[in-house]
């Protein structure tokens, strides 16, 4: 008898009342997608656990891949046996033979109350069976080397041991969609990752200013989007040509207010594009006090142009904390490649750190960006990056 299943525990998802079925279905589909190159697996989402039936596949690479999927609290290897005492005894014995150490504990749960023995009775029975049939093992209920769990359910009994932690969070796609404002920097990909952690499906918007920004700068964004796909499936990126707008801003607005106005225009474009795609929120990598555009005054002034909810997972994080996550999710090395971003090219030497709202409104009253905003949106290039495919897909335009 062998471990023939992987058991997946849901964590927070289990608390979601009536929506539970939807959350489980979403998680199941995400797991299925991440494992689509395995043909023989069967994935069952039940109310309190999910099981992957291995059909002879090696469980460890599968667990490794599923560790990147949000909505999973932990994994264990599981053996499915019949609901009779003899099979359960035999399975438990097999399970302990695969363990190393000197002390063990058996913990039995019995959701199936029709089973004739209580959990306590089963603990004693199975513990005794192990002691009689093995050598060198002793019981330790407090800190055992091997913890064998036995769950007697209606369909069968599952015997599990070991536990690998998952990432927690909610299954991507279960809480809606957000448009991530993504630069090539360190912060926004981390913000995207944390937004996905709360079950959000991402699309991204990137402003670039050719010929002032290079193809290599764009390549950074492509690589970042590609790295995010392993956490949330396909990521669609909308590339917005920003050169004309930036030139118009810096021609018509005094230099020290240029950055604030530029950010306001970015927000307006992002909101408009989000609306076009039925996306209900924006997400950014802003972190309070980090740079001039992220002082309380700047955030207030920039935020004023939209009443869309803006998800800012990094707002209260230190740069070091952000960098640590960037390293963990493998975006850091891409982000630090030294290519220019549109914001760094046009950035004034002394941007206003405490912009005044009245002053901005006065400046913007004499220059109208609406036409250029509409043109930029018309010229958006949209590319979908796919999980498991290490190359760029065709743009929508090419497919039409
Ligand atoms: P990041 O590391 O994400 O670039 P940052 O610390 O450099 O952030 P800013 O340059 O002030 O901060 O940008 C703040 C936020 O504005 C970014 O996190 C991102 O969400 C958005 N942003 C900046 N530049 C762009 C861009 N070219 N395209 C899309 N969004 C951008
Ligand atoms: Mg930046």
Automatic annotation (TrEMBL):
PROSITE patterns associated with the record: THUMP
Keywords (A to Z) from UniProt: ATP-binding, Cytoplasm, Nucleotide-binding, RNA-binding, Thiamine biosynthesis, Transferase, tRNA-binding
InterPro entries named among the record's database cross-references: Rossmann-like_a/b/a_fold (IPR014729), ThiI_AANH (IPR020536), ThiI_fer (IPR054173), ThiI_N (IPR049961), THUMP_dom (IPR004114), THUMP_ThiI (IPR049962), tRNA_STrfase (IPR003720), tRNA_sulfurtransferase_ThiI (IPR050102)
EC numbers on record: 2.8.1.4
Subcellular location: Cytoplasm
SMART domains listed in its UniProt record: THUMP
Binding positions (ATP): 181-182, 206-207, 263, 285, 294
Catalytic activity: [ThiS sulfur-carrier protein]-C-terminal Gly-Gly-AMP + S-sulfanyl-L-cysteinyl-[cysteine desulfurase] + AH2 = [ThiS sulfur-carrier protein]-C-terminal-Gly-aminoethanethioate + L-cysteinyl-[cysteine desulfurase] + A + AMP + 2 H(+); [ThiI sulfur-carrier protein]-S-sulfanyl-L-cysteine + a uridine in tRNA + 2 reduced [2Fe-2S]-[ferredoxin] + ATP + H(+) = [ThiI sulfur-carrier protein]-L-cysteine + a 4-thiouridine in tRNA + 2 oxidized [2Fe-2S]-[ferredoxin] + AMP + diphosphate
Domain THUMP: 60-163
Primary localization: cytoplasm
Functional pathway: Cofactor biosynthesis; thiamine diphosphate biosynthesis
PANTHER family listed in its UniProt record: TRNA SULFURTRANSFERASE
Assigned protein family: Belongs to the ThiI family.
Function: Catalyzes the ATP-dependent transfer of a sulfur to tRNA to produce 4-thiouridine in position 8 of tRNAs, which functions as a near-UV photosensor. Also catalyzes the transfer of sulfur to the sulfur carrier protein ThiS, forming ThiS-thiocarboxylate. This is a step in the synthesis of thiazole, in the thiamine biosynthesis pathway. The sulfur is donated as persulfide by IscS.
Protein name, entry field: Probable tRNA sulfurtransferase
